[in-house]
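Per your request, structure below.
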């Protein structure tokens, strides 16, 4: 959550974020990245669909952050193995099988 606040300045109250957390996992397989051993900690937040998405104000290191509908994503548009990481949380299966 600190990373969200620092890199994209996500303005969502911490209790709302904590209440929206549906999954968390550390990906540490040594050969998952061409850059060598790289750890990735992924989180799945389910924000309420009836509310407007929070505005993102990205800064350096998060300057490409934007909201994208899962149905619009293409597996090869995601960095390295991030498509596979998203499948871990289950929601990607609906769109890419």
């Amino acid at each position: 959550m600190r990373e969200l606040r620092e890199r994209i300045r996500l303005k969502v109250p911490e209790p709302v974020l904590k209440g929206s957390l549906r999954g968390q996992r550390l990906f540490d397989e040594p050969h998952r990245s061409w850059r060598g051993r790289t750890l990735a900690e992924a989180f799945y937040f389910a924000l309420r669909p009836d509310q407007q998405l929070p505005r993102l104000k990205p800064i350096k290191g998060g300057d490409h952050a934007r909201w994208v509908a899962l149905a619009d994503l293409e597996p090869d548009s995601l960095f390295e193995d991030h498509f596979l990481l998203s499948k871990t949380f289950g929601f990607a299966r609906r769109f890419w099988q």
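The chain has one domain: 2-70.

Regards,
D.
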